Every structure is written in C-alpha cells, then in structure tokens.
C-alpha cells in the first residue's frame, strides 16, 4: 500500500466551540526548520477576534455561576484528555524543533499544570476571602469574583506550555478567554483546542486564534468588551500599546515577561487572582 | 375576488435570491448611512405581560435619547406597546415627534370576536395611538375563510380612522410562502397601510424568504394599483448586520422610495443597541461593549 496519500490536518481556529477557518480566507505558511513539513495556519483577522469576543461574552456568565468544584473537575478532565493525546503533541513539538526529551518535559509539565490549577479552582476563593473588622454593626467580608472576558497574547517561545499556563488560571477563576497562540510555534494550539473540545469545557469559554501579533494586538487591547488583557513578551512598544489601549475602558492589565514557563514558580494561585475582582459586602447584624 | 388567484412562490428560488442579496459587501461610508437609517426605522418594542408604566416610560426616554454622548443621531420611528400603556407613552413622548404604535385586536392570538376587536381598536385610537398593529385571524385564514379575514381587516381599518394600520400576518403560523403571499395580497386589498411579518411571540418570526415574499407582493400591488404599502419585519432581528441586509433587500426589490421610516420599519427590542454599538465602532475604530449603552 505504498501509494497511499497521507491525509494532512487542516489547522483552523477555535471559536465558540467550533473550528471555523478564518473569515478573511488568509493563511500563513509554516514550515519546520528542515522544510520537510509545510503546514497552512489560519491568519486570524480582527473580525475573527470580534466573533470570538461575542462567543466569550455570551458564555462567561454561566461559567462563572458554575460551582467551583465543577470547574475543577473540567480542568482535571482537560489534563486527562491531554494525556491521551500525548503522541500527537510529541510529533508536533518535535516538528517545531524540540528534542524528544524536551517535548516529553513540556507535555508532562503542561498536564501537571492543568492538574495544579484544577486543585486550586475550588480553593483559591476560601484562601483569598477575608472577614474584615469594622467598627459598625456590620458583618463585613470580601470575596474574589471572575473579572469577565479576558483577552490574552500567549507566550511566543513555547507552543503548548505557555498557552496552557495562560489559559488554566484564567478559566479556573471563572473567566472566559480569547487567546492568540504563539506566532512562531502555532501547531499545538489547535490540537489543544481539540483537547478542550472533548473535555466538557462549555463552548465559548476558551477561544483560540492564530495569526500575527503585530496585526492583532491593537484589536485585543482596544476592544471595549474585554475586561482584562494578558500580554506575554518583552517588546517595549507592544507593552506600551497594551497599557495605553487598556485605559480606554480601564481593562485590568497583566504582563508576563519572557520566562522559562516550566519552572514551578510560574504556577501559583496568585495567577488566578490576577483576573479576579474583589467584592466586599456589608451585611447588617443585630446590635 | 382577485386576491384568491394564488401567486405560487418558489421556496428554493426565494432562499437563493435571499442568500445572494445577503452576501453583498457594503462599504464603510454606505454602512454608516445604512446604520443611521436603520435607527430611524425602528419601532422600539416592549410587549410583555410584565410590562409596567415605569418600563414604558423608560423605553420612551430611550426612544428619544438613544445615546446622548454621540451627536446627530436620529430618534426611532415609534414605540410599540400594549393598549393599556398607550396613554402613558403618549404623555411621555409628547413633543418628540415619535409615534405611538399599539397592538390591538386580541394580540397576539387574535382569538376574540369581531366586535371586541373593533372596540379595542377604537379605544387605543381614542387614547392617542398613531399606529395600530392588528393580527389577522390565522385559524380562519388556514381554514380558507378568506372573505372573513378580509372583512375583518377592512372593518378594523375603518375603526382606525386617521391612525395607520399595520396588519400582522404571523407568518410563522401560515406554514407556506404561498400562504404568506396570499395573506399579503388579502391584507393590502382590504386596506392595510403596512403589512408586518410577526407578533414576535411565535417562532420562526421574520425569516428572510418570508420578508422577500411580502416585499414582492408589495411591489406587484404597487404596479397594479399605484399604491405604496409599507413593510415591517418583526421578531428575531437583533443585529445591525441583519438590519443592513434587509435594507439591501428592500432597495433591490422595491427601490429607494421604501428606504424611509414612512414605508419601512423594524419591529425590535434589542436591535437599537446593536446598531448604536456599530455606529460608535465605525466612528472610534474600537469594538464596543453593551456596558456603555442604556439597557433595552
């Protein structure tokens, strides 16, 4: 059967639980360092981003209202599904230039990170809530609540781990997210979307786009319906642009410099808190 | 009766024509114009059992102050409400030039005897309604009692006096496009000033092939009699994109004359905010959020 033609995967976007092609019809040719494999990646447009935002807004309310325990279960499920797809991620990561050992490490760490945040999903609220002493007849307490819709520019230098490290704490906290995957190493992002698709993550909670940072960062940061923006990278102009545009509607801004995401210090319940708002309640009590 | 000559409608053809019209690309400058025009064509609607005077007053305020931080916006054409709210709305809209449209004739089912319907129409006109949205008796229509339906419309028209009459066909219950065409012809012959797709209480409401069928009926009626009848799709139109697509459809089917609130209306509750968001987006370049617009 040597004359069989291989069926190659079409890399599409992930919006509202579906896998559409970019509405713009544009694509980017991606090839590995030896030019032995060539893949067409969708070059997402601002309209794709807009559509993803509509989906994320629609989905965010019911996700935030689910029990924290259920969100934890779903995050754990993503980890399980990722484990089952190990071979596919191995192939993609090595194609993108990692050694077998490095690829193995990246997958292991990604799965562990999901499990880590699954564990925190129903615990961070207790840890970060306070009962505040006040000198009036009130019971005064503070709890963290989801910020809403988060737009994120994922790290460029990692294909899988960076993306997982950005998405997991955001959705663990009850937000929905629209994320732009790594421009240099885009392959794992859509495979991760397939994992999410089979993990009981409700449609619209995670939306993944591929494309050029330089083209999309303006729209990610200026959209008035975005409640928080995460930027991963060191480019000074990008960072300035994000800060300036965020001021339009006072978005919460989270910036991560380029870093080795595999280190344990880059997973923390404080990352969940970066996309939370604190609500303080004054409840009258009898004198 | 001439209307009983059925004009058969090709459903596949209607669908095809609609998808061609809807895939037109609209350039920015035209889009901004179309968005402004859409706003001025809206019948801002609240038709819920739980409507209160407060809600109607708030709706009336919104009708004339769509988005005050943005200059040179038109107002909507009318507000559309239940009969008991007409006097409240009339008072709240005084001096704004915005019409009060009231549904009548046992809306939404139309299940009442003729005298009760006529009394209701008279009372809303007395209370000050400028426009009356009546429903046809779909049960009778589907049983083939066309003369009854036609008579009923004619008598309601008479009871309206100077008020404009919109006839709701409730196309979601008419099953076929042939029926939609027949009901349109019947309503126009009986004296409708406007024909309207739906009550918004039945699904499907205004679907594009239905609207196209009704527009073609209006065109044929004008060719035959010289009279211009208005059109109002209602229900399920919530986005600026849909509104602009419908404008394309009218322009291509009926021509420029119908691109005016006098002859075309959108019955909608949430359309206004989406159009406003698009207008502001076209001006600032930033996609907008509902958080910065009044509640509808």
Task: Please explain how this structure is put together.
- The complex is a heterodimer of chains A (287) and B (296).
- Chain A is 43% helix and 19% strand.
- By secondary structure, chain A is an alpha/beta fold.
- Chain A has a five-stranded parallel β-sheet, with helices on both faces.
- The longest helix of chain A has 22 residues.
- With 296 residues, chain B is an alpha/beta fold.
- Chain B has an eight-stranded parallel β-sheet with strand order 7-6-5-4-3-2-1-8.
- The longest helix of chain B is centred in the last third of the chain and has 18 residues.
- Chain B starts with 10 loop residues before the first helix and ends in a 12-residue tail after the last helix.
- Classes of the chains: A alpha/beta (287), B alpha/beta (296).
- The interface between A and B is small, with 9 and 8 residues.
Summarize the SSE layout with pairings.
The complex is a heterodimer of chains A (287) and B (296).
Chain A: E1 27-31, E2 38-42, H1 46-65, H2 68-84, H3 86-95, H4 100-121, H5 124-128, E3 130-132, E4 138-146, E5 149-153, H6 161-172, E6 176-180, H7 187-197, E7 206-209, H8 213-222, E8 228-232, H9 236-246, E9 252-256, H10 269-273, E10 276-284
Parallel strand pairs in A: 5-6, 5-8, 6-7, 8-9
Antiparallel strand pairs in A: 1-2, 3-4, 4-10
Chain B: H1 11-22, H2 28-40, E1 42-45, H3 53-64, E2 78-81, H4 86-93, E3 99-104, H5 114-126, E4 131-135, H6 138-142, H7 146-160, E5 164-168, H8 177-190, E6 194-196, H9 208-225, E7 230-232, H10 240-254, E8 266-268, H11 271-284
Parallel strand pairs in B: 1-2, 1-8, 2-3, 3-4, 4-5, 5-6, 6-7
CATH superfamily of chain A: Aldehyde Dehydrogenase, Chain A, domain 1
The beta-strand count of chain B equals 8
Shape of chain B: globular
Instruction: Figure out the total of helices of chain B.
Output: 11
CATH fold label of chain A? Aldehyde Dehydrogenase, Chain A, domain 1
The CATH architecture assignment of chain A turns out to be 3-Layer(aba) Sandwich
Strand content of chain B: 5-15%
Q: How would you characterize the largest beta sheet of chain A?
A: 5 strands, parallel
Coarse morphology of chain A: globular
List unreliable stretches of 5+ residues of chain B: none
Mean pLDDT of chain B: 94
Structural class by SSE content of chain B: alpha/beta
Largest interface: A-B, 9 and 8 residues
Order of the strands making up the biggest sheet of chain A: 7-6-5-8-9
Low-confidence runs of at least 5 consecutive residues of chain A: none
CATH superfamily of chain B: Aldolase class I
What is the strand content of chain A? 15-25%
**Count of the separate structural domains of chain A:** 1
Mean pLDDT over the full residue set of chain A: 95
The number of helical elements of chain A comes to 10
């Amino acid at each position: 059967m040597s004359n069989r033609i291989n069926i190659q995967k079409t890399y599409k976007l992930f919006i509202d639980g579906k896998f559409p092609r970019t509405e713009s019809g544009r694509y980017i040719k991606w090839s590995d360092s030896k030019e032995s494999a060539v893949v067409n990646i969708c070059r997402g447009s601002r309209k794709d981003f807009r559509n993803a935002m509509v989906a994320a807004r629609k989905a965010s309310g019911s996700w935030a209202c689910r029990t924290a325990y259920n969100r934890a279960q779903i995050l754990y499920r993503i980890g399980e599904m990722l484990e089952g797809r190990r071979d596919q991620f191995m192939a993609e990561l090595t194609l993108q230039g990692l050694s077998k050992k490095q690829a193995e490490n990246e997958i292991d760490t990604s799965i562990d990170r999901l499990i880590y945040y699954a564990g925190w999903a129903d615990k961070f609220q207790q840890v970060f809530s306070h009962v505040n002493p006040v000198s009036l007849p009130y019971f005064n307490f503070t709890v963290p609540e989801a910020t809403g819709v988060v737009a994120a520019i994922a790290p460029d230098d990692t294909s899988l781990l960076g993306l997982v490290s950005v998405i997991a704490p955001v959705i663990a906290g009850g937000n929905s997210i629209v994320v732009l995957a790594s421009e240099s190493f885009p392959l794992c992002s859509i495979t991760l979307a397939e994992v999410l698709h089979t993990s009981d993550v409700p449609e619209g909670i995670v939306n993944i786009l591929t494309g050029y940072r330089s083209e999309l960062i303006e729209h990610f940061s200026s959209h008035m319906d975005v409640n928080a923006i995460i930027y991963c990278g060191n480019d000074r102009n990008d960072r300035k642009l994000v800060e300036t545009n965020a001021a339009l509607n006072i978005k919460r801004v989270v910036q991560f410099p380029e870093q080795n995401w595999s280190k344990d210090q880059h997973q923390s319940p404080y990352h969940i808190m970066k996309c939370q708002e604190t609500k303080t309640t004054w409840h009258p009590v009898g004198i | 009766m001439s209307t009983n000559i059925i004009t058969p409608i090709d459903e596949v053809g209607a669908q095809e024509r609609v998808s061609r019209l809807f895939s037109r690309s609209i350039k920015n400058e035209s889009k901004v114009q179309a968005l402004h025009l859409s706003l001025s064509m809206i019948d801002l609607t609240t038709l819920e059992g739980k409507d209160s005077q407060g809600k109607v007053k708030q709706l009336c305020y919104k009708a004339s102050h769509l988005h005050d931080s943005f200059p040179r916006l038109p107002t909507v054409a009318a507000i559309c409400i239940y009969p008991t709210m007409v006097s409240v709305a009339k008072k709240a809209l005084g001096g704004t030039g915005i019409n009060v449209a009231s549904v009548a004739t046992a809306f939404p089912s139309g299940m009442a005897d003729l005298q009760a319907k006529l009394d209701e129409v008279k009372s809303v006109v007395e209370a000050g309604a400028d426009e009356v949205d009546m429903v046809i008796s779909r049960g009778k229509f589907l049983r083939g009692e066309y003369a009854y339906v036609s008579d009923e419309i004619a008598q309601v028209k008479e009871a309206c006096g100077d008020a404009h009459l919109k006839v709701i066909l409730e196309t979601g219950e008419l099953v076929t496009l042939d029926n939609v065409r027949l009901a349109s012809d019947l309503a126009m012959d009986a004296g409708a000033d406007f024909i309207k797709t739906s009550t918004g209480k039945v699904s499907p409401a205004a679907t594009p092939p239905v609207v196209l069928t009704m527009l073609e009926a209006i065109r044929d009626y004008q060719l035959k009699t010289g009279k211009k009848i208005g059109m109002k799709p209602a229900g399920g139109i919530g986005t600026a994109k849909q509104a602009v697509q419908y404008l394309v459809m009218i322009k291509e089917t009926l021509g420029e004359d119908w691109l005016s609130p006098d002859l075309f209306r959108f019955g909608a509750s949430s359309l206004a905010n989406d159009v406003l968001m698009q207008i502001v987006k076209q001006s600032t370049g930033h996609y907008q959020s509902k958080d910065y617009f009044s509640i509808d």
